[in-house]
């Protein structure tokens, strides 16, 4: 039910957006937006170029209970994506934590699309969700600006190339990821970093209903 409510909220928000960025536009200079990646790891490699977009993701991670292992398995995610490239440096570092606090409060309801305005990032650029993989097997993550940019190719479907556990509270915070763009013109590389929450409970009872876990994260698109 929660996932359905969030999807409805995201759809409503998309209809309210009358204008947005083109693929080549960015409101602020992103040349100083450098990811703070953990030292000593080789799975995530920061590009030398400036990111095209720096985004705050606010949404849910979805899981189903495996009957064979009695643990939760990911079945995708849904999130609203806000432009944070213009945030002041003093606000940028902690925006994902402040957004999660607002998102997790009882007053937040199911309106992920409203959280950006509460943390100084009111511009909704698009949405993140999962679709059938281009290979035809399984599902793949998609970052979609088509409802705001009004450009049919303003999306990217990604394929994971790197994965590390969150540097802090890894039992609570979902992994940090690097992905290559495999379809769409929005970006060629995507990173998910600075994650807050999103991990499921450690175990489940076979036959349990799917669950949704709130999370926030930063997404860098190159």
TrEMBL record:
The keyword Transmembrane helix is assigned to this record: no
Signal sequence, renumbered to the chain: 1-19
Pfam families for this protein: DUF3455
Keyword Signal: yes
InterPro entries noted in UniProt: DUF3455
Name of the molecule in the record: Malate dehydrogenase
Keywords tagged on the record: Signal
């Amino acid at each position: 039910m929660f996932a359905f409510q969030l999807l409805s909220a995201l759809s409503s928000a998309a209809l309210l957006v009358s204008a947005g960025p083109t693929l080549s536009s960015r409101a602020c200079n992103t040349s100083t937006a450098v990811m703070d990646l953990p030292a000593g790891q080789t799975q995530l490699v920061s590009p030398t170029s400036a990111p095209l977009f720096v985004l705050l993701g606010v949404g849910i991670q979805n899981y189903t209970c495996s009957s064979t292992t009695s643990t939760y398995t990911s079945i995708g995610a849904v999130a609203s994506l806000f432009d944070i490239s213009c945030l002041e440096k003093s606000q940028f570092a902690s925006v994902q934590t402040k957004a999660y606090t607002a998102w997790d409060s009882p007053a937040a309801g199911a309106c992920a699309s409203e959280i950006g305005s509460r943390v100084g990032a009111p511009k909704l650029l698009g949405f993140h969700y999962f679709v059938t993989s281009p290979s035809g097997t399984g599902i793949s993550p998609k970052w979609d600006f088509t409802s705001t940019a009004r450009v049919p190719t303003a999306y990217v479907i990604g394929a994971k190339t790197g994965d590390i556990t969150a540097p802090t509270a890894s039992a609570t915070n979902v992994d940090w990821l690097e992905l290559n763009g495999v379809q769409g013109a929005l970006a060629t590389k995507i990173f998910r970093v600075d994650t807050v929450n999103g991990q499921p409970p450690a175990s489940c009872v076979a036959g349990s209903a799917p669950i949704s876990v709130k999370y926030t994260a930063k997404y860098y698109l190159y």
